[in-house]
Amino acid sequence: MTQPSTQPQLTPQFCFSYGTLRDFLRLSRSSIDDSITQNLNALVTPSRPGFDPASTSQRTLRPAPRQIDTQSCTDFKDKVLFPSWQARSEVLNYCAMVAASPDPDDPDRTAREFEKEQDRDRIVDERLDPYSGRFFPREARTERLASLIRQERSVEGIVRHRTWEVVQQRCGGDPFESWEDTHTDMPVCWQQPTYDEDPVYVRYYVTTTQTPLMLKNISSN
């Protein structure tokens, strides 16, 4: 049976490394969701009769995919599919929290402040230059991360919907049952941050069925 996706170590550095974040999501979806048909076929071990030469004399239709027994489907969903979905959800939830947190160590912070200062000193005369009043400040990395998370959550919903359609076809079940009805992501409650004497250290407590997690240096590089 295919192994579920392994959740990476969750740190702000992981989230701000956009390529690493995307690679984890892409590889997880590729091995589990994009390959869902192959993964389900692996649960079936059909007997292979010997080759019959007479079979070439007439055209036969390709047999429909075999129905998978209920227990095998349940095991696959509970041990592979849902844990992989959960791992991705926890990554997206964590990085969404990072995107909404203070980020005093943003490497572009000084450059943005300098650009804003320059913009305040500019002389705007739209009669001479209609574009002189336009100012596009450099985007903070938390804003870029928030935008990425929104995109990936949208993709995640589409991927899960397609995967669940295949699972329903091969495993049976209520055709009107969506993946949301069967699998609910582990509830994650992000409490308000509490600040130590040093404002760089921010404690976030994650309430899940797992042991509460404390994260320090949430805004460090």
Automatic annotation (TrEMBL):
It comes from the Eukaryota. Residues 45-66 are annotated as: Disordered. InterPro entries: MIX23. One of its GO terms (cellular component) is mitochondrial intermembrane space. Pfam families: MIX23. Belongs to the MIX23 family. This is Caffeine-induced death 2. It comes from Fusarium heterosporum.
